[in-house]
Structures are given as structure tokens and as C-alpha cells.
Write a structure and sequence with these properties.
Layout: H1 6-15, E1 23-25, H2 30-42, E2 47-49, E3 54-55, E4 77-78, H3 81-88, E5 95-100, E6 103-104, E7 110-111, E8 114-116, E9 121-124, H4 131-137, E10 140-145, H5 170-173, E11 181-186, E12 189-193, E13 200-205, H6 211-216, E14 228-229, H7 235-245, H8 257-264
Parallel strand pairs: 1-2, 1-5, 5-10, 10-11, 13-14
Antiparallel strand pairs: 3-4, 6-7, 8-9, 11-12, 12-13
Helix pairs in contact: 1-2, 2-7
């Protein structure tokens, strides 16, 4: 894979999708990491906020969860859930929500509730939380997934959060005035949605994989015609990510062997 991990290139790839002035709604885990990366590297004028009410924190240390007191350090406003969700749906702000899920379909609809039937599930998950609100109200959504056939499915076991519904104009026809998935960032590449059909297509593949491998891990036909190689992380990006954003590797996990060797030297 080279001198970086899948988690590192996922966080950096998501951060590259953010622009100055974007308002970032971050959840726990990779979502929080990507929002911090965007703020520190790609879009210093972006504003990060959390559903627990920390708005525009300094992020001097990476919080472990949205309820971590560090989401309130150096903020412009310490508020609460109602204000955070009001900000999320503000019609004049370009709010982008970072979300994860257990399953996703070709139109970016998400399942974070359960696998199997609702009455006799194979496995239960925490559920929507604020995910349905974010998917319904935000200007756009960036989704994090592990790229596996059992996660990229033709039909969700449970419909938790709306994406582009059945494609085309169906989201707008259902009454959603804005929003929809912008991209899906996985451990294999970055996928986006056709502006007309709203079907998922492969936009970028990482240097350690290829389009055919990604298609084989997708449980529905995937358009590969627009696929291009993703630029690998730069040394500057990796240095900031490792030494400034998550030096304890709380979310990033272990360093790759090559990087560990260089550090020890």
C-alpha cells in the first residue's frame, strides 16, 4: 500500500472535497478526523460543529466522540442539540454532513439501523441518531464506508436516512428542498453521483487498488467509465495528519510498517 494507511487516505480524500466557507457537521470516528483534516489542511476557513453544540472549536486535540468535552474547547459558541440541528438545516449555509452507515445503495440511501428483518434482526446498530436529520436537511452529505459487497447493496435491509431516493428528481419530488449525497469515501476509492440519474459511479481509485477490484466489491452494477487514479497523499498532508491532527493515532490506528521504520530511525 505504500507509506500510508487506508484510514489516512480516506481522511485526506474527504478533506479534499471541502472548500473554504463550508460548514462541517462532524460525527464520531473518521467523520471527526476528516473534518479536522479539512480545517487544518485544505479549507482553513471552514467551520466545524458538532450535534452536542460545540460550534467552531479550536480542535487543538482530536475529540474521541461528539460528547467529548474537547468539542467545546475554543468554540465561538457553546450551545446544544436544538441549535446545532437548526444550524445544520439553515437554508443560507453550505452545511456538509459527514456520515457513516452499515449499508448503502446505488442512490446513496443509508441503513444504520439493523441487518435482516426488523422483527427478527441478524444484528442491531445504534440507529439514526442525527443521521436522518443531517441527510434530510444539510446542503450535502459525504459518506464513509468500508467497501464490501455486503455493505454496497442493491436493496437496504432498513431505510434509515435518505439519499437520492430512487434517482432522478425523486428526492425533490418527495419534498426535500436541497441536499443529497455528494460523495462516498471508502477504503478503496471515492464514488460520486451522476447529476442526472443520481446513480453512484466510481470517481477515483486509490493507488493500491483498481476499478475492477472496486466493482467486484460492489453489490450493484457500478459505472467505471469516469474512474481516474487518486493522487496519493503528499508528505506535507501526512505530516500534518500524523503530527498535528491525530498524533496519538486514536482514530487513525497503527502506522504503516514503512512509516514506523522511518520514525524509529
Amino acid at each position: 500500500m505504500g507509506n500510508y494507511t487506508a484510514s489516512e487516505i480516506m481522511a485526506l480524500s474527504a478533506g479534499r472535497l471541502v472548500h473554504d466557507g463550508d460548514i462541517l457537521f462532524a460525527g464520531t470516528g473518521l467523520s471527526m478526523l476528516a473534518a479536522t483534516v479539512a480545517k487544518r489542511i485544505h479549507a482553513p476557513e471552514a467551520v466545524v460543529f458538532f450535534e452536542t453544540g460545540g460550534i467552531d472549536p479550536s480542535l487543538d486535540e482530536l475529540p474521541l466522540a461528539v460528547a467529548d468535552p474537547r468539542v467545546m474547547v475554543g468554540t465561538s459558541v457553546n450551545s446544544g442539540l436544538a441549535d446545532a440541528l437548526s444550524l445544520l438545516g439553515h437554508p443560507k449555509l453550505r452545511t456538509i454532513a459527514f456520515l457513516g452507515a452499515a449499508q448503502i445503495d446505488r442512490y446513496g440511501n443509508l441503513n444504520s439501523t439493523q441487518l435482516g428483518s426488523y422483527d427478527e434482526p441478524i444484528q442491531r446498530f445504534p440507529g439514526s441518531g442525527g443521521a436522518c436529520d443531517a441527510a434530510s436537511l444539510a446542503y450535502g452529505v459525504i459518506i464513509f464506508m468500508q467497501h464490501q459487497r455486503r455493505r454496497f447493496v442493491n436493496q437496504l435491509d432498513y431505510f434509515t436516512s435518505p439519499g437520492w431516493l430512487s434517482g432522478g428528481q425523486s428526492r425533490r419530488q418527495a419534498g426535500f428542498k436541497r441536499g443529497g449525497p455528494m460523495a462516498v469515501v471508502t477504503n478503496l476509492g471515492v464514488l460520486k453521483f451522476d447529476p442526472e440519474t443520481r446513480e453512484m459511479f466510481l470517481d477515483e481509485y486509490y493507488p493500491f487498488t483498481d476499478p475492477q477490484k472496486i466493482a467486484s466489491e460492489t453489490g450493484f452494477p457500478l459505472d467505471l467509465s469516469r474512474a481516474r487514479a487518486c493522487a496519493p497523499p503528499t508528505e506535507a498532508e501526512l505530516t500534518t495528519l500524523r503530527e498535528d491532527v491525530d498524533p496519538q493515532r486514536l482514530i487513525l490506528g497503527p502506522l504503516p510498517v514503512e512509516a514506523s521504520v522511518r520514525t524509529d530511525d
